Amino acid sequence: MRRLIILCGVVLVLAIVMAISSHIVIRDRVAVAATPPIEVPFEKEWAGSGHADATAEAFTHWDEATPPEIPIPCAKCHSTYGYQDFLGVDGSAAGTVDKPAALGSVITCVACHNEATVKMDSVMMPSGVEIRGLGSEARCMQCHQGRESKIGVDKAIAEAGVGLDEISDKLTFRNIHYYAAAATKYGTLAKGGYEYDGQSYDGNFAHVEGFNTCVQCHDPHTLELNLQACATCHPGVAKAEDLRNVRMAGSLMDYDGDGNVQEGIFYELQGLRDMLYQAIQAYASQVTKSSIAYDPVAYPYFFTDTNANGTVDADEAKFENAFNKWTPRLLKAAYNYQTSIKDPGAYSHGGKYIIQLLYDSIADLNTVLASPIDLSKARRVDYGHFAGSEEAFRHWDATGAVPAACSKCHSAEGLPLYLRDKATITQPIANGFTCATCHSDLTTFALYQVEQVEFPSGAVIDSGDLNTNLCMGCHQGRESTVSVNNLVKDLPPDEVSERLRFLNVHYFAAGATRFGTQVKGAYEYDGKTYVGLFAHVPEFTTCVSCHPAHGLEVKIEACGKCHAGVASKEDLANIRFATTDYDGDGNTAEGVAGEIATLRELLYTALQSYSAEKSGAQIAYHPTVYPYFFVDVNSNGTVDGDEARFENAFNKWTPRLLKGAYNYQYATKDPGTFVHNPKYILQVLYDSLEDLGADVSKMTRP
To answer: Does pTM top 0.70 for this prediction?
Structure first.
């Protein structure tokens, strides 16, 4: 019994020692408590993400390869080893992958968390364009950028050396690759899609403050969307699929032409993509004499549709059956089709950019189709404030910033800054206005309260309507009678002076037109009187009573209630408020827009005659090329392609010529003058003609 007790005691002591030893390490013969296991931050979140899925095709594709390794072109984004090689943290050169990567890794913590990624703030896109000034999203964009671009497609076509509709065995399908979200988001700045020559495209889709980067919308570890945050602005969003129904107030066009402007942008994209697929198949059949079909998961995606049933059947989805009758035109369209599919979040990353790519691809194929796809009701560009592809927002892409002189009205953040601090500074290039450009609160969508507006002439106006005041912050022009007089000063009216240059009132100065002589937006001649505010009727005295705040188009239906026969925008030109023959052409039935148009045409003739006589050089006008007035070298009355150069800008100004040209531009750059204040614009055109010596004997000045 005693032995048994002793034995049990020994066992108990040993057990205690073993238990203690599991928490003690011996360092230099000194017992020290062991450090508890380290808990890796966010490891559980990461473990359920696509970056950690060791069974995914993205990481197992090369398991059966010979040799068993991930090749150099794929290693950067399909293994931690390759990404570290690209970063140079493994001791190799940074910015390139030097060797194939070993199998067996996913995207682990050290791929994104290391000394190189902490400093990273730029990304080189496949197009060769470097996007700078990024934050932590640069880590994401290194891989989520695609592997092809317009540049690559154009290079392949150039090397093939064939016409647009010629088949070449040198052409193969160019695949942008998967999840190219950065290419979608940065649009034309990255040139990830195939952009057709002569067209302009949206740039970086900025969304709203706090939701502009990858990691502000996606959890960096789980990769999931922050749906709760989405729902604060997008009611009804409870799951990822609900985002497909989102449509903003700045997206009011029927892009796919199906008559539904309530559906989410996802469905607009889907509609256009279906139309493009139809066009691709029709083109292949008619031009290449071969049927084509698409499979989203089988490489290389486009196959010969051997039975012409419109889909890729199992026995057709083989590499040996890859479609091989590519023409340059077909390759461009197919590339954009794939681009629209391989970023499943394209509708939220940069939906309008993808819309433009799809629309243009259809339009290009239509030029040779026997039965073109109907695009008559589809649209590629949004209303002005949200037309990110247009010159008003794309003008500064080459420099990368909107200068202080332009940023108030041509950037998303310039107007709020000006309203708050009465200052303008250089701003980032914009892709159109955002909600925060005009709304001070994105919960209540309250507008900025603008009590009064200062015009370029120095006049300060309170329209009596806060919304109108807000609009006139930009729609006021940039010059005036005052600035023209300051420039010409005491110069003799017909003396050519190097001191003079053309002054451009700028675009859509509707506010200045409407308030007439109260703000002196047009050039008003000494000794003449001019009308002031055109009040219209009580129900239509503000900007937004005639123009929807977001759509900007005229409320035609409302106009038709008072103006018989007005059913379309074009019908507005027929409106007339008096029987006076202002332009002297004998037609008192035409709309006042016609009266203004005739006076404007006569003014152009007078400018040309005067310039040839007084300066020895005939002047000509181009409405879209700065600085608008050029030397008409061949005296044919128009600006030809070789004349529309800055070096050929007209530079023999006299004060009289400058005043007349200023008013000609004014009447051109506010296309709604006949509605905004017709008598005012008729007065300044009449006076310009009279001052230049034109015969105004048959005309009537209001």
So the answer is: yes
